[in-house]
Each structure stands twice: as structure tokens, then as C-alpha cells.
Design goal:
Blueprint (H helix, E strand, L loop, with lengths): L3 E4 L3 H17 L5 E7 L6 E6 L29 H5 L7 E5 L1 H12 L8 E6 L30 E4 L18 H7 L3 H14 L5 H5 L24 H15 L8 H5 L6 H16 L27
Parallel strand pairs: 1-6, 2-4, 4-5, 5-6
Antiparallel strand pairs: 2-3
Helix pairs in contact: 5-7, 7-9
Length: 311
């Protein structure tokens, strides 16, 4: 929609504009809920903020630790299709989004998980985030960012401090230090690397639960009939889980990095997503996932000219 742009000179000014926008939306009752960020209880941490009243807007912040992709919370709001079918009252929600967040929002709308008219999108130019455990360096997911400015918004807070964008799309991942290192390993060494990762997984499903692309009402891994994966924790079932999930988000992952950030075992979950995303972009000559409403996820449609070497 891209209606209005507000110019902010720095992070403090962004925070000021965020609060003004939120206060105005609630006072004129344009929205019922605002999703944003607030200061966490620990240093260098933020937390999701759920703002219902104008007197709460001063809790809103924006800094280099606002990691959370808030779009996942929209799946719990009453504008989901199942509630629409029941003719229940719908909340209109305003949400603050960074560049990568805005793409996951487009994906959810394309998947009919939320409706565009029930979401007011407040975009923020992202300056790049910092690592939680080493605040002197840029967060790994931001190294190859190519959407510092949200691709969809109703109002945008722009800033000269936004992170320079990578014009190479997912191909920028070829320069990703960890991905390049693994791709250059001999097959046996590469296999041992992934075996070690799968052995370390405790199958807590945090990566799935936090991912905005994982929007199924019932995940196949929670089913018992059929039982797709064993309930025990072992290398085989853990590997099956990670590979199937990677295929499910292939061409739909927006590189927000929430899966890897939330992993209690610090597993390199994004490497699988990045590799498959890069492969899809190269094989199908498709643009990165959810960059606009006109192009749906690669594995959500079929074209006769798609390569079929596996046949």
C-alpha cells in the first residue's frame, strides 16, 4: 500500500515516531491492538509488546536488539480464516515490521492465514541488529540482508542509518562464511557435520514454533495417525524432522533468523534454509521469497518450464 513516509534522523527519533503513530491509532480507534517491541528484563534484550491502550505506548522501543519477528503473533489474532468463517468479531491489528518481517507478512497473506485489510503495517528502516552475546558485531542474519526497508507498509519510518542492502538476493548467501565452508567440505566430512547437528538437537520444536512460515494448524510432526516421526530423541528422527521442515519452508523462508536465534542448542538451522533458498532461486530463476504480492512461493505453484531432471 505504501501510503506515508515519516523521516527519522536516528534510533531515538524512530522510537519517538513509533509512539506517536501508536498513540494516534489507538486514540482514533483505527486499531484494537498494536504489536511492537519493549525493553526486556535482561540487558541487550527486547521482548514483544502488546499495546491495547494509549497510556501503554511509552513502552515501545526500537534498537539493535529488536530481533523478534512479530508476524507470528498474528496467527493468534481473531482474523484467521477459521474465525472469519464463524463470523466472529475481528480485531484490526497494527504491527511494526523490519524489512525481513514485512516479507513474512506478505507470505502469510498469500497463504490466506491473515487478511491484508485487517492489518495496519508500520514499517521501520532497519539499521541492522547486533549479536546478543557479542554486541560489538553485526548479527549473522544481517550480513546478507537485502530488505532493510520493508517491502509492504501503510506508513514507513525511514532513517539514514538503515543497513545497506545486498543487491544479490539470496545469492548473497554464497558469501556466507559458514555456508561456503560447509559446501567446500568433502562429502564424508559434510555428512559428519550434519550428523553432529542432528545428534545435538533435543527436538524442542522451538525453531518451528517461532517461524512465521510454519503456519499449519496441525503440524505433521504432532500427528500420531499417521506417525511421521518417532517421539524418541535420536539422530535419525531428528534429521528427518530438520530436513522435512527445511523442505516445507524452501522458497518461503525470509531469512529473519528467528529459528536459529531461538534454538537452545545453538544449532545452525539457517544454513539448511539458506542452502535450499539459494538452490530454488538458481534452479527456478525465481526472485527471493515474498518480495511482493505478485509472485507466490516457488513450491506453491507449477510452471511447465520448471526443470524436472529428477523424473
Amino acid at each position: 500500500m505504501k501510503d506515508t513516509v515519516i523521516h527519522a534522523t536516528n534510533t531515538i527519533a524512530i522510537r519517538h515516531e513509533m509512539r506517536n503513530i501508536a498513540r494516534n491509532l489507538l486514540e482514533i480507534q483505527a486499531v484494537d491492538l498494536i504489536l511492537g517491541w519493549k525493553k526486556g528484563i535482561l540487558p541487550n534484550k527486547s521482548a514483544p509488546a502488546f499495546i491495547h491502550r494509549p497510556d501503554q505506548v511509552d513502552d515501545l522501543i526500537f534498537d539493535e536488539f529488536c530481533y523478534h519477528n512479530l508476524t507470528k503473533f498474528l496467527l493468534g489474532c481473531p482474523d484467521r480464516q477459521d474465525r472469519i468463517a464463524d463470523n466472529e468479531d475481528r480485531l484490526k491489528t497494527a504491527i511494526f515490521v523490519k524489512g525481513c518481517d514485512s516479507r513474512s507478512l506478505i507470505g502469510l497473506i498469500q497463504d490466506n492465514q491473515i487478511t491484508r485489510e485487517n492489518v495496519y503495517i508500520i514499517g521501520i528502516d532497519c539499521p541492522g541488529l547486533k549479536e546478543e552475546h557479542n554486541t560489538t558485531i553485526l548479527a549473522k542474519k544481517c550480513e546478507t540482508c537485502y530488505t532493510a526497508t520493508p517491502v509492504e507498509y501503510d506508513i514507513l519510518i525511514d532513517s539514514p542509518d538503515k543497513r545497506p542492502e545486498n543487491p544479490n538476493g539470496l545469492k548473497g548467501f554464497q558469501a556466507h562464511r559458514d555456508l561456503a565452508k560447509i559446501e567446500n567440505m568433502p562429502p564424508a566430512e559434510r555428512g559428519a557435520y550434519w550428523q553432529q547437528m542432528f545428534q545435538s538437537c533435543i527436538r524442542c520444536y522451538a525453531c518451528r514454533n517461532v517461524c512465521p512460515v510454519c503456519s499449519c494448524k496441525e503440524c505433521c510432526f504432532d500427528q500420531t495417525l499417521p506417525n511421521w516421526v518417532g517421539k524418541g530423541n535420536n539422530t535419525s528422527d531428528n534429521g528427518f524432522y530438520h530436513l522435512v521442515r527445511a523442505m516445507h519452508v524452501a522458497g518461503r523462508c525470509v531469512s529473519c533468523g528467528e529459528c536459529e536465534r531461538s534454538c537452545p542448542m545453538h544449532l545452525p538451522v539457517m544454513l539448511l534454509n539458506s542452502k535450499l533458498g539459494l538452490s530454488i532461486e538458481e534452479l527456478f530463476d525465481e526472485p527471493p521469497a515474498s518480495m511482493n504480492f505478485d509472485v507466490t512461493a516457488t513450491l506453491n505453484h507449477f510452471k511447465p518450464e520448471d526443470p524436472e531432471e529428477f523424473m
